[in-house]
Amino acid sequence: MIRTQSVRFIVALFSLLVAFSVQAQKLPNVMVLATGGTIAGTGASSTTTVGYTAATVGVQQLINAVPEVAKVANVTGEQVFQIASESMTNEHWLTLAKRVNTLLAQPNVDGIVITHGTDTLEETAYFLNLVVKSRKPVVLVGAMRPSTALSADGPINLYNAVILAGSPEAVGKGVLVSLNDQIQSSRDVSKTNTSTPDSFRTPELGVLGYMQGNKPYFYRASTRKHTVETEFDISNIQALPQVDIVYGYANMNDVALNAFIAAGAKGIIHAGTGDGSLAAKVKPSLIAARKNGTLIVRASRVGNGILARNGEANDDELDFVVSDTLSPQKARILLMLALTKTSNTKEIQRMFYMY
Ligand code: DGL
After folding, report:
1. How far is the CA of 83 from the centre of ligand 1 (A)?
2. What is the value of pTM for the model shown?
3. What's the half-sphere exposure (Cβ side, CA atoms, 13 Å) at 101?
């Protein structure tokens, strides 16, 4: 009698293990690479939503806080950095991008989620959009409230990001950003509010889609080249050229511009007022800088719209580049990568209309 019961127990246990194994094989394998930020932040109390400490919770704790992810993917965590993202550097980006490309080349990795502070999330996402060499999904996710807060948005954002990174629909769409139940393009999304959960927006060009009911729904795709379609390869790059941003405003002067150039900037993004206008006190120094070999990109502080070539300045004559619709902070990223390939302004302008 006992022997029969033991056999039945063993058979039941074996069947259960097989069932789990079959189920696990059906689920996508998603890596979660953690870099820090508010999603890993802690506050003094559950009502602390500002004035908390970012980058304190480790990747395994983040994953353990959302046990539901185990039903949608086989998740493995890796702590790449643990920083507040305002301190992200070019060196961090190169390390992260090389790690992403190494992991995506493995057949047992179907997609990657990167947890990240929201301050520079859009920049890391765009950098990766230009240098990741795989069509597999890469999804950046963050949170506007720390993990300890009432209605923390991190857990649901992480859950949705894991689903998105494991979904066939996200393959070949470029690097994506997902917070607040939305799917955004890394090229066009911006953080638009200092603290509210709906901060990430693409005001005029719009979201790519939504996360709803454990599924992604895409309605648009980026028209610009990305990931495997780009000419940028960082596998053998140890440092990126220095590019800085000069911000335009009434009564501005050329002190910052000249300081950046004296410090060795190879390129300058001029985030001008309006359609990239050049103030009378700054234009001569920009022209002199160009003549001395510094690449100049005219961008705008405005946030939306096309930066018109030969509009507010005679770019052809001055040998300037215009940023198209890229924000100044994203124009800096593209110019840095462009300068790893060429210093020819016609070639660089082509890149700004291509990526
Ligand atoms: N220090 C900011 C950062 O790491 C916190 C903002 C956030 O992650 O939401 O980007």
Report:
1. 9
2. 0.93
3. 20
